[in-house]
Design a protein that fits this description.
The chain has 17 helices and 14 strands. With about 450 residues, it is an alpha+beta fold. The protein folds into three domains: about 160 residues, D-Maltodextrin-Binding Protein, domain 2; about 90 residues, D-Maltodextrin-Binding Protein, domain 2 (3-Layer(aba) Sandwich), CATH 3.40.190; about 180 residues, Orthogonal Bundle (Lysozyme), CATH 1.10.530. A seven-stranded mixed beta sheet has the order 1-2-8-14-7-3-6. A three-stranded antiparallel beta sheet has the order 12-9-13. A two-stranded antiparallel ribbon has the order 4-5. Strand 4 and strand 5 form a beta hairpin. The chain is globular, with a radius of gyration of 24 Å.
Amino acid sequence: MPIAVSLAALALTTSYGCHNSHSSMAANDGHRLPDTLKVGTLYSPVSFFIYRGDSLGYDYDLVKQLAADRGMVIDLKVAPSMNRMIEMLDSGLIDLAAYNVPITAEYKSRVVPCGYETITSQVLVQPKNAAITDVAELVGKDVYVMQDSKYQHRMANLDDEIGGGINIIPVSQDTIIAEDLIDMVSTGKIPMTVVDSDIAAINSTYYNNLDISVPVSFEQRSAWGVAPGMKWLADSIDTWMEETAPKEAQKELLKRYFQLSKIEGTPFSIDFSSGKISKYDDIFRRYAPTIDWDWRMLAAQAYTESKFNPRARSWVGASGLMQIMPRTARAYGLRRNKVYDPESSVRTAVKLISDLDGMLTDYVPNSEERKKFVMAAYNGGIGHVYDAIRLAEKHGKDPQVWDNNVAEAALMLANPAYYNDPVVKYGYLRGRETYNYVDRIMKFYNTGKAAIPA
C-alpha cells in the first residue's frame, strides 16, 4: 500500500509507491536504465524555472536526484503544453514526463503514472483573519477568479450545489493570472480567490497573511508519467522512490519550495539622521566607482538583497551581503570561506554588475536607464531580461525604457500566455518579484541620495 504523507499546511499530499497493477519492485524485464534520461517538463513556478541563471523547480530537482543516484545524465526538454508533452512521450522524444500529469481517464491509455503521487484540490485563498471555514459560508461573498478558467467553472458548479448566492467575479486572463489575484488578496484589494492548492502553497511562502485551508473541489491525483511501452522505467522509478535517501530528499524539496519563507523585502526603514546608510558605507564607496554607480545606489541594492546582514542566506542558497548565488560565486572565484565576508561579497557583486552592464549595452544605450535593467538581471537573470525586452517590443512598448515598458513585460512573464510566446526563450519568471526589486532599490536610493552626501 502507498505510504501517504499529509502536509496539511500546504494543502498538498504526496504518496509513495506504484500507481498501477505492476509492482514497483518487479524486475525490469532485462531493461537497463539509459545513460541519458530524456526528460520532459513544463515551465511553471512548481516544476521548472530559471532563476538568477540557475535551473530550479520541485520536479526538476527531484529528477536530478534520480539521475545522480542512478548514474544518468538528464537531457531536458521543455514542452509548451501538457498535450505536447504527452505527444513527446508517445513519439519517444522523451522517456519521462517529470510533471504532475493528472491521473484521469483522459490520459490513462497514453501515460503510465510513476513516482510520488501528488494530491491537490482547488482552495480558497483569503486573509488569515477572514471568517470563511466552510464553502456554505460563501453565500453573499465576492470571489474573484480568472475568466473562463477551471476555477470559474468550479465556482459556478459549487454555486449550484449550495443553492446559489456566491458572487463570482471573473477577471480577464489577458492581464491577470492566479499569482496576481493572490497578491491582490494579500494586499486587501480583493477579498478572496480560488487556485490550485500547490500554487496556493508556494505563494503562501511569499505572503504570511493568507489562509489556504478551505478546499472548494474534489481532490485531483497526479504523478510523473512514462509511455505504456516503458512500464519497466516506471518500475525503476517507483523502486528508487521507495528507498530512504529519495524520501529524505523529497521531504527537503517540499520544505524548500512549499514551506520556507520567500517573503520579499519590506519597505526600507533606515534612519539616515546619523549621516550614514550602513556600517559598510566605506566598502560601497570603494567599489561603486568601478561600475560607474553612485555608492548610495550600491548600498540600496545591498539593503534590498540582505537588509545589510552579511550572514543572510535565501531559500535558493544565495548568501551574504549581496546575496551571491553558489553558481555565481564559483564563476567569479569567490571562495566558500569568503561568501559571508562583506567586502568579498561586494567585490563579487560589482564584477557581476559590470558583466551584466556589458551584456545590456547594445540593448539599452542610455547608461542611467541601463542601471535598472542591470538590477533586474541581477535579480531574475539576464535571460529573463532579454525575454522581457523582446516581449516589450512585440507588444508596442519601448524596449529601451524600464518603467512602464520593459517592467510591464517582466510582469507578463509570469503568465503562460506570454512565457510560452516564441520570442521568449527562458520561460516562466516571477515577474512581480523582479518588478518590486528594482522599484525598492530606486526608492531607497532616491531617499538616501537626498539625505546622505555623496
